[in-house]
Write a structure and sequence with these properties.
This protein is of the alpha/beta class and 693 residues long. Among the domains are: 8-244, Rossmann fold; 551-693, no CATH class. The protein is built from 28 helices and 24 strands. The strands form eight sheets. It has a nine-stranded mixed β-sheet with strand order 3-1-4-5-8-9-12-11-10, with helices on both faces. Mean pLDDT is 90; it is low at 2-40 and 650-693.
């Protein structure tokens, strides 16, 4: 039931979590101008241009009954990047009367759950664009102070596990109305899964919520099919043939019984007693998720079976276009007038050009949710949306992102589709790029150039993550190689806003192999190209790399070497994070079980706060307050040889031997502007004393 786009480690949303709402007492003029612009720009739309959220809005449409009522833990933003809007508009286009109740109050008398009454067909529930626990808690299990998907970043408008909380309330109020779960939280919790925040192996969310069915992955097709079947008079318990759904039933009620080609997983109870069984289960789940022709999956729990039907085929270009061409206003609902929704501010001037990702990163949920195979929009559909963005009153000519789950996978697929029919690799580019993969960037360049040629576009930036391994690939097709070279230069010359964010994730090839990421040698290679093109084009741009600590298989020595390598590269890292175990990733299963799901060999993971902090501190070797702890840790792990590579051999007495402004990587000729003389912390203090005399 979701059109959510979980980005790299659900990264866009994670970045948005750190985006603070603008305050009225902002001390900078730039912030004040931005705040004024956000809060006072009038809407171009009437209330009836949005899907209704209240009884009054339903009456304005002269409806006396609703077919479907959607409950979402996110604010209602009528934009194709937000799942509830896409599902609502899809149902509307199919002729159904649909309303959305965003962020209902789950306390007290449940009036938000009662205000629209009983729908004719069913209730739909989504926890939002992120798993609620990722949204509410940090990797250290601390409550976040802000929620990027709530007005003014309020953190108290969604419960933990909305899929469960909302379902139980609706089941209590309307026991005979079907409940359909969707969104990333329900999708990735459809089978037994490890929950990091509760530190336990949990049953399918169907068991805990009491809902009738889960729509997993992208849900436009299933949501309409369920409505059509219910409208024909069928009982929700009898609807079991629709692809890409999961349901709970007795063994005797499994359609056609347990067949020889079904994948029967270890039961939930078996996994509770043997973590290796859970790890084995996940390999089957991931392999079936990445096949063109998947098998049905069954898992026993509490004497019943969770049945997961195979997914629909990858959406065609026409089907993806249809989802994006719906009549979105591209604005938050008028009820949020005067409030800032950080996630919307981040994407309001961006355009998504495809779905799916074949990267297969071990820690990422994108392929589990959107699929491995790329579903690209047509150029016409993309340009149509860009023209809508141009018409927005506060648009200044700059697209913030023209991308997708990965920036440069648009239009890519296997050259021989018959070979893809039998493939179950989780990644098309790891451990090596598949020779059957068409890595031609020509179609993507055509999109960029067509967008940049539109009147009203000054510049289109690429904010999505770039897979530099695709750009460096030496294909047998020279046309593909030439297009990659053209793309690289055009990207760096025209589509970088000053900082190009890419994700090497680590420097250790052993850890990178576990992450399913390319060797760090390729990062060096790409950086040389980046610096050369910057010099040739007289640009002063930077690479901002993303790194992860405490990933399964990563040890303190790996992080210590990362610190030395990034220092040599002149990086003072800022885009870093601890690994956070989230449901349905290889890395999470390895972290929880202690076994690699594919080899079943034991694997180490840093789990205690002390172990995680010991790894994370190496990111910040350049901070004076971290030096003593890092030196102590290097001695403890027997790597004193690295101390001299990180620091001067002189004793540390509060001396700062770095320029705090020199963050990121710059071309070599940019170094002349750096501070040549080390800065001492007490310099300003001494000047102050002199002035006070």
């Amino acid at each position: 039931m979701s059109n959510n786009r979980p980005t790299r480690r659900q990264s866009k949303a994670a970045q948005a979590q750190n985006t603070k709402p603008l305050r009225k007492d902002s001390s900078t003029g730039e912030q004040k101008n931005k705040e004024h612009e956000v809060r006072t720009t009038p809407s171009r739309f009437m209330l009836t241009d949005f899907l209704p959220t209240t009884k009054k809005e339903v009456e304005l449409r002269k409806w006396n009954e609703l077919d479907v009522i959607l409950f979402s833990a996110d604010a209602y933003i009528d934009h194709p990047a937000f799942g509830a809007a896409v599902i609502g508009r899809t149902l509307e286009a199919a002729g159904y009367r649909v309303a959305i109740v965003p962020q209902p109050d789950w306390h007290g008398d449940f009036r938000d759950f009662k205000k629209l009454g009983r729908p004719r067909l069913y209730f739909g529930i989504s926890a939002g664009a992120m798993d609620s626990m990722v949204n509410k808690y940090t990797a250290n299990k601390r409550l976040r102070s802000e929620d990027a998907y709530s007005p003014d970043g309020r953190h108290d408008l969604r419960p933990e596990y909305p899929s469960i909380v909302y379902s139980k309330i609706l089941r209590q109020l309307y026991p005979d109305v079907p409940i359909v779960l969707g969104g990333i939280e329900a999708s990735l919790r459809r089978l037994s899964h490890y929950d990091y925040w509760k530190d336990s192996l949990r049953k399918s969310v169907l068991c805990d919520s009491g809902a009738d069915v889960i729509i997993y992955g992208m849900g436009e097709k299933q949501i309409v099919s369920i409505a059509q079947e219910l409208e024909s008079g069928r009982n929700i318990k009898d609807i079991k043939e629709i692809p890409q759904i999961a349901y709970l039933c007795k063994k005797a009620d499994i359609p056609e019984g347990i067949k020889t080609d079904d994948i029967v997983l270890h039961s939930h109870e078996e996994c509770l007693h043997n973590k290796k069984f859970q790890s084995e289960n996940f390999r089957h789940i991931e392999e079936e998720s990445n096949k063109k022709h998947a098998q049905r999956i069954l898992q026993e729990v509490d004497g019943q079976y969770i049945v997961v039907n195979p997914p629909y085929p990858t959406m065609s270009t026409a089907e993806v276009d249809a989802a994006y061409d719906l009549p979105y206003t591209r604005e938050p609902h008028p009820k949020y007038k005067g409030k800032v929704i950080p996630a919307y501010e981040m994407i309001k001037f961006s355009v998504n050009i495809h779905r799916g990702c074949f990267g297969g990163c071990a820690f990422c949920t994108i392929s589990a949710h959107q699929g491995k195979f790329i579903a690209s929009r047509s150029k016409e559909s993309i340009l149509k949306e860009v023209k809508q963005v141009i018409q927005m009153p506060d648009f200044k000519g700059y697209l913030s992102d023209l991308g997708g789950p990965s920036a440069n996978m648009y239009g890519m697929a296997g050259k021989n589709q018959k070979a893809c029919e039998h493939c179950k690799r989780p990644s098309c580019i790891h451990p090596e790029i598949c020779p059957n993969l068409n890595t031609d960037h020509s179609k993507l360049l055509e999109i960029y150039r067509a967008v940049d040629a539109l009147p009203g576009i000054k510049k289109s930036f690429i904010g999505s993550g770039v897979r530099y391994d695709l750009l460096l690939h030496d294909s047998k097709d020279e046309k593909a190689n030439q297009s990659a070279r053209e793309y690289t230069r055009e990207l760096i010359k025209k589509h970088v806003s000053g900082r190009l964010k890419i994700a090497p994730e680590h420097t250790s090839d052993r850890v990178l192999q576990l992450m399913r990421k390319p060797s760090f040698k390729q990062f060096y290679q790409f950086k040389r190209i980046f610096d050369r093109i910057n010099k040739e084009e007289n640009l002063r741009q930077q690479i901002i790399p993303y790194f992860i600590s405490s990933h399964p298989g990563c040890k303190e020595e790996d992080m210590a070497e990362l610190a030395v390598i990034t220092k040599d590269l002149d990086f003072h890292l800022e885009q870093v994070q601890d690994f956070t175990p989230t449901p349905m990733t290889v890395s999470t299963e390895a972290w929880y079980s202690g076994y690699d799901p594919y080899t079943l060999e034991p694997i180490f993971s840093a789990k205690t706060p002390r172990e995680k902090l010991a790894q994370r501190q190496f990111f910040f070797w350049y901070k004076p307050e971290e030096r003593k702890n890092i030196e102590r840790e290097l001695k403890r792990i027997g790597r004193s040889d690295l101390i001299g590579k990180l620091y001067d051999n002189k004793p540390f007495h509060g001396r700062v031997n770095y320029d705090p402004k020199a963050i990121g990587s710059s071309p070599a000729d940019d170094k002349r502007s750096r501070r040549k003389k080390p800065y001492k912390q007490n310099d300003n203090w001494n000047k102050g004393k002199k002035n006070r005399r």
